[in-house]
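**Discrete fold encoding**
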Amino acid sequence: MTQISPSPAPAARQPRPAALARWLWAVALLVIIVVAVGGITRLTESGLSITEWRPVSGVIPPLTEAGWVAEFEKYKQIPEYQAINLGMTIEGFKAIFFWEWLHRILGRLVGMALVVPLIWYAWRRAIPAGYGWRLFALAALVGLQGAIGWWMVASGLEYRTDVSHFRLATHLLTALFLLAGLVWTARDLGTLARNSAARPARLTGPAVAVIAILFVQLLLGAWVAGLNAGYVASTWPLMNDHFVPEGIDWAGGAWLALTNDPFLIHFLHRWWSWIAALALLLLARTLSRRGAAREAGLLALVIAAQMLLGIWTVVSGVSMWVAVLHQVVGAILVATAAASLHRLGRADA
């Protein structure tokens, strides 16, 4: 009697850290693009043009004239229109609607770019051990970012003519935290692809100090944007012929001035930048001494570009495209700093 030998068991699917790393780098690039469009949305005062949060149906903009009129009528009900844009034409409304719509679409695209491949890689068992929770946390962070975005917009729909600068800062800093998380995880996976025994990088004490200093600068920058504080002075290094600008309102106390006064926040942002630059340059020097001269050079180059763009933004009177470039290079600086801190925390560095 002929015996039938059993068919061989299917080969176990192997983790694919290199593919996952490339995927996360692509998503990180998308986040930088979203940050750029977010800057344009803010500078064109477009952020309140869509007054409803419709995660699914909002993907499609108005397709008929009647649809545009209906959206415009909703916009006419909010304080921004009534106090600032009264008399705006429907063509003007379409222009600001476009930027806010594009910003929301790109945010959804980031979510899809994370969630869909993540489900695929998880089904294919291609995620290395210990990385699944981190990837799902990054995907969840995109969903949280969408909710924060609407929370920000909602602050300007009833009583204000703009959004809360605190909520805007939360929205921007969450996006930058997501960007840093993507870069850090991509670097971990890239290292794992080259050495299957490699362990994830860790945060060192100096790294935490650099992050804290950079966080303060990013927070101040977000507040400058939310309060339009860049417009209070267009000279550098002095602010309207003074080192410490005139016009700071101390009447409500130091804390209120520190968190709400545009003159003081602009002053702090322009001078704290030197502390942040020094901390990052010390990081670059450490990397160079550890044999990572190329990474150190790239970090120093991005720092210099960001400082020059900050000054140019001021002296240009906040030219829109200069200010947008300043925000984009700021995001690139966050990504570069995250990659540099990762190198600092690698066991084999």
Remarks:
- Confidence is low (pLDDT under 50) at residues 7-12.
